[in-house]
Amino acid sequence: MKAVSRLCWWLCWSLAGLGAVTRALKLEELFEFGEAAGDLQLPPGSDSTAALPLKGSLVYLEEKYNKVYNLILFQINTNGFVAVAEPPAEEKYLGKMPSEFKMIAVLLGDLDNSDGQGKVYFRHDSTPNILGRAADHIRQGFPDGKVEKPTNTFIVTWENMAAQGTPGRGDQLDTKRITFQLVVAYTASSAWAILLYPRNGLQFLYTSIGGERKLLESCFNEGLVGWFWQKQGLYFNLTSDDEASIRQLTKKTNAAQSGVWVYKIGSSPFFVEIEPGKVTRSPENEGVTDEPRYTTEEPELRQRHVAAPPRSAPQHPQIVVVDEDLDVNVFAYNPETCAHNRHKCSASADCRDHSRGYCCHCRPGYYGNGKDCVAEGKPQRMNGKVNGQVFVGNLPSPVRLSNNDLHSYVVANDGRAYVAISNIPDSVGPSLQLLSSLGGVIGWAFALEQPGYENGFSLIGGVFSRQAEVVFQPGNERLTIKQEFKGIDEHDHLVMSTDLDGRLPAVPLGSTVQIEPYKEIYQYNRNFIISSSSRNYTITSPDGDVQTRSYQWRQTIVFQTCPYDEAGWAGATLTTQQLSVDQIFVMFDANNHLIRYAMSNKIGPIRSMLHVCNIEEEMCESAGSCRPKKTRLTWLDCGWFRCRFNSIQFYLYSIHQNMFLSGPAEENRPVDHCQRGSHDCDAPQRALCRYTGGSAYICSCLPGFEGDGRVCRDVDECQQQDRCHAEASCSNTQGSFTCQCRPGFHGDGLHCSPTFSEREKTQCEQQRESAVADSDVPFSFRPRPVGRYVPRCDEHGAYEPTQCHQSIGQCWCVDANGQEIANTRTGPHSSPPLFTPAPIGPTPRPDVQPIAPGAYLLFAQSGKIEHVPLDGYIMKKEEAKPLLHVPDRVVIAVAYDCVEKMVYWTDITGPAISKASLTGGDVVPVVTKELQSPEGIAIDHVARLLFWTDSTRDTIEVSKLDGSHRRVLFDTDLYLYWYWNRDGPKIEMSNMDGTERVVLVKDNLALPNGLTFDYENQQLCWADAGTRNVECMDPHRQLRRNIVEGIQYPFGLVSFGRNLYYTDWRREAVVAVDRHLGKETEEFLPQKRSRLYGITTTATQCPQVYNYCADNGGCSHLCLPRLGGLSCRCPDTTDGQCEEKVL
Fold it and tell me: In what ranges is there compositional bias, type Basic and acidic residues (predicted)?
């Protein structure tokens, strides 16, 4: 390999192969720019150039530039580069690199600043502050060598640049833009280039050159060299032909901070040299490494002579259990002052100076260690990779995992954690169900905090190492888990990596695993945390065989707090805490090759210490690991001591120098395990524990379950004959079943009778009967009419939306009372475009429990949707039951389509928008791509449209009900009628095509969580968790009134007749409010108590509304209603012709 090729390969790898996670560069961390900084500005255009006079001398790529005429001007160009000579026309070099002239290309492409929003600023600057900052960046990139402080700099900033010829709506609001900066710092003998790419600064990666999409590129180019025979000189390419290399410019570094790249570009007028910075991780992340996430092809490189620096192998530090006096340095604070280091704190933290250095502290409303801070109550996402080798059972060869994606989602307000790992082979997937502890550390990090106690992230932030060892009984299989948590990235996601090594017990494919709730004690020290526990689990094989087993668990977490604030770290007083974990769900999805874990976590004080000691003692003794010594003190490997003094027994938990005592207790004292909760019977909803005296008890399954009492399985009563009437359907439930008479029959399901009773005729039926009777009167008694109008009624007796008079050949629209809607009457043989519901419904299946027709409340509760029947306005609480179970999901918002009898919901763990029929059927995915946190959802049952909000993307979007033809309506100033943002809460509305956006309410709002609109009474209502009020207003007349005051913490809200129903987080209830009386009338408390989310109702009839979008309104794609008409709009992505128009 030539020296030139070796150099380029090493340099490209130094950019593309960096895996350490560092803090991303923020826009405000760029060097100051703009008119206030004294910058000059490049004229607008797509290929503008301006000259920048230099001060002093600068060495760049062999040549020394000084004050000799024609050698003191650097040329700044719109297209993202700086040249040392006036560049030719852009068609000479764009897409044709390397070029013939010398340049530094920060981001080279066909860029444009002629729209008035893009700017190119540049200046020469030798002020001490700028020189000091430049020197800091250089030292961070080259910490080992002596760095001479620069004497001069020039700074060029490309701000909000667009791609030339970018299509848009014409208002530039949808144009994607990029921002980046170049700082060249130099002395008389040396020069450095500092390239800065801020987080979220690269909104596009390609520009169009010669009709083709070409990637942006970054490089140093020497151009043509030689006097007689010219040839191409050094071409140092920072990026490759892979778009990932462009994305990594903001995510990687060679100078200790993501988005910052430092290169030494000249130190000798006789030798060509480009030397990249050497620090691929920040001091905050010292010791944290990762594998390269992608590689680059070896590009062609041409130069005359260069020495290639050696490439060092990546290091993989081991995580070990450490002694308490070991000084662990996972990341180190620089013992300086906040004046120079404030930017190293989180944007949501304050920097405080101490006697020996500075520390970062999260502000009120946020929690973390100051380096990483997240908003209280905000859901947290984690991303990472899983690697390693796992032996299964007695198989001699391991299953290898290589960069398997791990995604996690935590509902911080509930302490509920969800973890999913993809591309899991069937050979290891069933056994990985035993390893819920893989995500247990995530549950601990964001556990629900009891008063006075703090979860892992509150104490140590998001940068730490963890090693855990799991020993499975009775086979003594052992597996080690090593995890690196690397802080929060530019997307506000916690980044982690996982490595597995060891053996798991074999679990047959198709088996289910149930892990019992457990408690775990965490012992805290200044630089590390340790814990251990024993956990039980049950394996149920596909043939029904049940096995109960256990495993032992130890872990060490290593981290670094700020060493300069001894009293400020909460862990200094919280020496021990207890993590309680329940509602554990594990599943291997063989169809999609996914392993899923979910668990609820709570952190608080240690409870039932003696019981925990007994568990640990039994665990060690059963494993044969307790080794008696000559003294009366017996050491148990699990970390527990048992001391016996005569008939008194003490249990002590000892870790290093801390000891906790529980006792005394009589050695042979009888224990009622049923009352104490220390029995091994199945869960109380499935089994009964009966105390029989002494310390004995009996376990038995409850009615509707079968088993030995320790493991109880649900009995499917519907498989037994004659459970329900022959004319009824049977639905199995946990421990019971329900019967429901089929249509045409009535009764309780156990006994069904034909429905013969005739209901009272409706207004439409009475009018139709009267009209028919009048037309049958003999003509001799009165003159024969031209023709009488006979109303048309549907199968329920309601007026059909379209009514026609056959004799005069006219049709018109009517409301629910049969009254004609103005301006809808048409001439002979034509019909107005009115919406007509079409019956539809999938075949039943057990995923969704069918419910009888009628009005219901539907509300979301974490992993399920429940329904409560309504009798008028009264909730029939005794008949409430789940409609849909999705245990590994978090359902937020729900909406109902009265036409197809479908319930739609948003799921923030997928994330996804899905639907299912109330009559039973498959769960149907609707939108699964380009979502981050879908929360609000609304259905237009007339125009057949779906609207939703995404709080992470800050968008309101619309699509067809099947998810097709997606279009972003709003992506600015966010967080139809929509909610609020915390900085300036407001309620807004617009037409359904996004036009005429106005603010309805902005005063006296705090946290307006719930929002609903009553079509019948034209009232907009909201529930505010900040003001603790429910209010309504007429949006047309702007009349606002209080409905009820002093509520607690509302989330969802829905209107039904005279009532409002809202879900409350603190009461964990559905609350009914009578708007006319202005007071709460009742509440419903679900059997499982946890936070409730969105709520809606199922209407027995669709509201009769004029449909402007009948037959899609003549639009090619989206028909969006607006006041008095419609708009034809194109989706954001379309394959064919699309025409936008307003009708």
Answer: 280-303
